[in-house]
Each structure stands twice: as structure tokens, then as C-alpha cells.
Batch of 2 targets.
Target 1
Amino acid sequence: MGTHANHELNSYFTVDFGLILQGKPLPYSIYVNSSKHESRDRFVKIVGQDEVLNSDLIEGFKKYHRVYVLETERNQYLRSLVDATHAPDIERVSVIKDSAIKYLDDIFDPSKEFNTEILGDAIEGCHESMQSMVGVIKDYDINNLKKLIGDLSFHDFYTYDHSINVSMYTVMILKAYKPQSKNEDLVTAGLGGLLHDLGKIKIPTDILNNTGKLSDEAFDVIKTHPELGAKLFDESAPDLPGADSSAIRRVILEHHENWDGTGYPNKLKEKEHHLFSRVCSIADFFDAITTKRSYSDVMSIEDALVVMERTASKKIDPDIFKFFVEKVSKAVLNGKASIELPEDFDTERAHKVLPLRKVKPKKISSDFTKAEGPSKKKAA
Ligand SMILES: [Fe+2]
Ligand SMILES: [Fe+2]
């Protein structure tokens, strides 16, 4: 991490006691806030690094419900979630998601300070989040993953949720297509998915948030985001040990290329675009038509697959798509696909062509992101 992270020394984030690793040496210390006053925090260490939380300690500490971990030990905490198998997946994944949101927010929030060093740090944080995510979800099938994603609290309908969903589907699809994939490949592809729309930070928000009809000129601007994203990725030069940076860059650049060579920016055909880019395109497509966004309600899995089937070998890699479909339980495979997608369907415009119905965002349940807000906890 770069130097600007130093201000995070002695700041804490809070986690549910149930999401602390048990029965193995802790790779981080845990603290409680012993102060009764909101304005005067006093953090006391209750379990140190390398100690093991055994059943006696667990009994004694259960009363705390929420505990604190040093911000500087966030990555160790995230990694440990993979082994915290006593906790339900939904809880572990929501903490990982909140952590990814924290980093995506550093990237996408226009009111935050931005430079390539901050971007590099945020991408490195995304990498950490992705490593934990892969550990928890890599053996999911579509139905379970769709349900898990539906059960997670959602945040903004587009940037963060979409990026995170696409990363999760990308991991799942790659694992279905190539079951022997190494962990690093799954993390690399997932990180490509998480960052695929990175270039959108350079697209004016009035164009991105335009919910009305989009002019061809405005859409041409949106179409520049793959190249803008690849450039930003190069400039930020993140240090991603074990991951393949050039493959991530290609996912960012190539995720709107089509199998038949009609995509953008380079009209690549078939296997000219990277395997992970082709996988990400399917994930992007699937999330665009099955996930609520822009307050819209969208397709069932079965309808989505029927619609996607029609465009396999035009827009998406038909071979990978076959494996994707095989990861759906047969019980849901009788879609009627009442919704026709237009010939020029583009995932960037999904919310403009799908029927709209208002829905309310769910509340974010974990304090992970709150610790980053204005009331950021500092050591007493
Ligand atoms: Fe995109
Ligand atoms: Fe996308």
C-alpha cells in the first residue's frame, strides 16, 4: 500500500463477533471499545495475534457482539474469513462485499480525492477482497450464487453492486468452464470483473445517469470506457502478487467485444479476446438482465438464459455459455422469455430497455463501511 494509507494507523473497523476466526491462531488482534461515551473511544485488546479463540474464550467474549480490528490488519482479517467456516456464507460474503465497496468507493466516488496512487491502492484492496471472495464462493452454481447475491444488501443499483456481482459470476463461470483453474486464475478473472467498468469514472455523470433516451453521441462517449479503463489501470500500476495484471487489463479493455466481431473498441472476434474477457462478457450480460438496477425489476434466471441462448455465437462465446447453462439446476430451466431484447442490446443500456418498477434499496447491515464514514474511529 502507498504512503497515504498511513493515516489509517490506529483506526479500527468493527465486525460481528460471530465472524471472528475460531480454533486457529488469529492472524490479527481483536479489541473492544470499553468507553461508555460516543466521543471518547477507548479500545482495549482482548485477544492478541496468534492466540487461538477456544470455546472458553468464545463463551467469555460472546457478550461483546461487536468487536474491533485495526484497519492496518484488515487484509489479514479478510483472508481469515475463508477459514471462518462456522459462520454462514451470507455473513462472510457481506463483509467481503462491504470491504470491496469501501475500495470501489475510493475509485468511483467523484467527491473523493483521486490520483493514480490512490487508484493503485484501491485496486490492491480490491485484490485482497477478491482473494477472500474466491475462497468462499468458488464452488457455487448459478442458482445458489443468484440467491446469495439477492440476499446481500445492495447499495447503489449500479456501480458497486454491478461490479461485485459481475466479479462473482465471472469466478463461477470460469470455474464451471475450467474446473481445474488455479486460484490465481479465479482471482485474476474475478478482479477483472470487479474492475471491468473502471473507465466509467472518466465518463461525465450526466451521461451515465441519464435515464431517458440516450443520443448516439452520448452512447459513443460511453463506449470509450473500456479504453479509458485500460489506460487508468496502466497509470495506477497496482502491485498484485500472484495475479496476472495483463489479463486484468484485457478484461477491462475487451469486455464489450462480441464473439462475432461486432463489439467495441477493437471488433475482436472469437478467441481473439482473452478467455477471461469472454467469461466477463457473459457475467456482465447475465447481471445486466437479471439484477435490479436503476430501480427496475428484471428477468428470471430461466428467461435470461433463453434470451442469452439466442445471442450465443453472436455476442457471447457459445462454448463457455454451454458450461454456464449446465451450472443451472434443471428445475429452473423452462423459461418463456417474454421479454425480447433489441438486436442492438448493450449491457450498458440494459436499464433503458427493460421494464421499470420501483424498488427500495435494502439497508447495509454490516458496520464495515460505516467505520470509513465521518465518525471514523480513532484510538483514544
Ligand atoms: Fe462496460
Ligand atoms: Fe458492466
Target 2
Amino acid sequence: MRIYLDHNATTPVRPSVAEAMSGILRAEFGNPSSVYEEGALARARVEAARSELARLLAIEPRSIRWTGGATEANNTLLFGLLSPGDHVVTTEIEHPSVAAPLALLESRGVEVTRIAPDETGCVAAETVLGAVRSDTRLVSVIWANNETGSLQPVADIVDGCRARGVMTHSDATQAVGKAVIDLASVPLDFLSTSAHKLGGPKGVGALIVRGDPKLPAYLHGGGQEYGLRGGTENVAGIVGFGEACVLAREELADRLVRHGELRDRLWAGLQKRIDGLRWNGDRDRQLSNTLNVEFEGLAGEVLVQALDVEGIAVSAGAACHSGSIEPSKILLAMGRTSEQARASIRLSVGWGVDESQVDRVAEVLGTLVPRIRAAEAP
Ligand SMILES: Cc1ncc(COP(=O)(O)O)c(C=O)c1O
């Protein structure tokens, strides 16, 4: 049996999610835009899922626009909202699906200010707000970083931006289902999320759009999703996302505790066996499921491969854009050297992980790390 400790890359589809989706795929093929019974049933399914995501985030269902994932949600917002001459404030710890569109927009005349994190991976709200100008159109700050799990002070940033009349966005892809997100008390204008990080299917997500900011269509076509995204809805995927939201609402409090126990047990197991470790983060200001560790003096990608051979899946950097052995930009932004960043791996727990699995991972690492260090020693 393999051990999967890469829940920040993606999560196993929960059985009740697969069941709900399979019911649609097998028996309910209607197009939600059709006016007869089959269409009405499909529409009802899509809207029921919208209500579930709305309940999870404490927002109005009509502020949800289904997308093909968080990358699409981020691109829809940034390309829709920003024009040459606009100023945007963001951070150095954004996921590439925010960082890359902003870099492209910058080359087209949007001015971008990027705020650096501290050594634990968090930005300070005052620094973000201090960069806001009279011509700032948007402040976009990730809710929880995918590599370290660091939680950003989104509520304080939103408060300060509202006082200055500036719109706010957060890529909350890692946070939804793993952290408390109560948008009734955090009046963000835009938020991005993705089903596959919380036990749902890949290829479906949402952009939350509050108020009436007049975003232009991202996909031109049949006018679905309040005119923002033409194209027949991914009904089965959306239904799966809805079920994943039901589970998240029911389980969130337990998840926070359970993930934290497993993560801390893993850290204790590593500390007992291995020296030269550093936790890249801050236990009190990060997702409870994530442990990003530097193993002084070795190459993370070698460790990842050695663990894979032992039946253990973890990540060196972010899996969504892995395949390269470039040191993590996030860890560099946190002040690590290239060697320190390369020596770091991410272990992230979630549904299906138990004590015996994290104990086994600590034990295997306890054997592998000294062996690899010895082999790599000059
Ligand atoms: C913070 C963050 N934003 C966006 C994405 C992209 O999500 P999707 O795979 O749904 O496009 C990811 C995926 O790893 C992520 O972690």
C-alpha cells in the first residue's frame, strides 16, 4: 500500500463525491440550459452545488461563477479586471496561476508591486497596505501558500483596502476545506478555489465575484455563468464539488485538529531520528496539514525519488509546476539560499492518512536521510 503525503498537490476523490458524480454520468445527461425536464434537473443539480459552496464560504450563491479550476478563476479575474496603467499589489508567494498572468500583464503596462514575506512565509498586512496607492485597482494576496501552508492576514488586508476603496482578491485554493473561511466577516471582492484540493474532482473550480464589478466575459459563447464563462457547465464535476463542500462543512473542525496531530507527530518522529532539520513555516500561522522541511545538506529531489521507491509520495516544491529542479521561488523569497531551498520537501496530510503511515514515513526518512547525506558528501 502506498502512502500519499501530497494532499496539497491534489486529494483523493472522496467516495461520496465519486458516487454523486457517477449518478450524473450514468443517468442524468441533460444540458442545464435546456428548457424541458432533463435540462431542469441538470440546472437543479448545478444550483444545489452552488448553494453548498455558498454555505461553506458564507456567501450568496449568485456570487459564484463555476470555472475549470483555480488557474482559470485567477486568469479570468486578472485579465478581466486589469488594464494598462492600472496598479496592482500582490506578494512574492503567489501560485504561478496568479504570478504568471500578472507578469504578462506587467509586460503590457500594468504596474505590479510584489510584497516579500518574512522568513516564515507570511506577509505583513501593514506592508501590503503601505504599498496601496490612489491608482491601485486591486490587491491580490494568496490565502494559504501551497508550498509552506503559510496563512496570510487576508482579513486585515481586506479591512484596510475597503477603507481605501480598493478591490481585493485572494487565491484561497489551498485554504478552502482546510482553514476557516467566513466571507460573511471578510468582505473580499473576489476569491478563487478549486475542487480537487478538497476531495472533489480535477478541472472544476470557482471564482467568487461579489458586488457588481462588471467583469468582461472570459469565454465568449452561450452566456453561461452570468455571462462570464460561455460553455455548457461541467455538471458532474460541479455536483462533485458540491458534495466535497458538504463534507468540508461537516468535517472542517475535526480536520483542523486531526491534520495538526498527524503533522506534529510526523515532525516529532523526524526530530527524534534526524538532525539538521528546519521547519519552513510557522506552526501557529499555517495550514495544519502542511509540513515543509529542510534536510540540511541534501537535494530534495533525490529524497523525493528515494521515497517514491519506498512507496511514499511527497513533493519537492509545488507539484502543479514540478518537473524542474529549480529551487522553490517561495523559499527563496523567504530568504533561504538556493541550497537550503533545494534541500526542502513538502509533506502534506489529508483524508486517508493515519498514525501508522506518518510513523512509517518518519522511520523511512530516518534511514534514507543519513544514507543520502553520506553518498552526497564531498
Ligand atoms: C494556491 C493555488 N492556486 C491555484 C492552483 C491551481 O489550481 P487548479 O489546479 O485548479 O488550476 C493551485 C494548485 O496547486 C494552488 O495550490
